[in-house]
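Two records follow; treat each independently.
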Amino acid sequence: MSSIVRTMEDYFQYITPQFPDTYVNFQRVPTVDTSNPFSAREIPSHDESFVDIRFRREMKNIDYLYMLRMIDGAFMSRINTMVVPGGKIGLAMEFILTPLIEELQERKRKSHVQLDWMVEQ
């Protein structure tokens, strides 16, 4: 079996099953011609790209209007997909991921509180 076939099998077995479980997906899309790898001397810069941010449809607590106002040049390409200029990816990640991380921390804090009664004194 060739290594390319094995690599594709691994991709389908291990990588693609993760996509439905992803809450937020960031994909950088260059806006310059990258079709000929021999003519492009360097990786497109952030300013030469956009970032597609796809949200899982079940995520109801995302304030799209706030983010659209706060991130200059952002727009919605679909009901659950926001596009931001490549140079704004850090700001977009901050707006999107900070509340998710805070929620995880709060869940962790609450889970420890709930288990305290089980600790023998």
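The next record belongs to a different protein.
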Amino acid sequence: MEMLPLSEVEKLALKKVKIFRQSIIRYLLRSMLASMFIGFGVIVAFKTGNFFYIVHSPFAYPMAALTFGAAIILIAYGGGDLFTGNTFYYTYAALRKKLTWMEVIKLWITSYLGNILGAVAFAFIIFTTGLFAESSVNGFLLNVVEKKMQIPTMELFFRGILCNWLVCMAFFLPMSLKGDGPKMFAMMLFVFCFFISGYEHSIANMCTFAIALVLNHPGTISWGGVIHNLVPVTIGNLIGGAVFMAIMYYYVNKPFLDDFEKEQGG
């Protein structure tokens, strides 16, 4: 039982690497898809939350957290490639000596770049729809973005660690569940936990920021604010996925991994 999800992580990492080795363009497009899927989650979360926000209801954030779970279902079943999950998968594959560290770094950079491009493309499409043009509709989104851009750097860093630890769990634990229903429920529950807790997810943030920047926004929302948030959050996400998930799981399960290798060899 111990081995099942970890062997799945390795398989998933190697599948993703195969795409990267065959075509970097294809891999970039998969990464763009992932952040666009997150964009769908951002839109539904802030649209829903806004109904409660405009009447000053305390349910604005919980309702946004509940509906944002749509994003993880889209990524898990729609086949996108997300930088945050990759910090776990590729680090684990490298620890198992299935990938070189240089390849891991290239994969991280490519998926992050693709995620940025996807966020920008999605924000442009949302801008053209006019769905968020009215201040009565975009108030909640702009309020949250403004706050995110003013959080102290160290707080952002540690929120980034906790966020990706939980988000990687949201992908990892359901691997050992049977049936799509339980998997989806577990994924949405973990995503609700990360959102409601107020942790920081670099790719969700870049999608939210891109949308806020194309709208009629106050001066408190700026490119400087984007960098202030994304740099510590990205580093925190990287540590959450690579250290607290990949290194931790590799180390604590090393006896099982060694036995498994012997069995496979035998």
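Discussion point: The CA atoms of residues 160 and 172 lie 18 Å apart. How would you locate this feature using only the token line?
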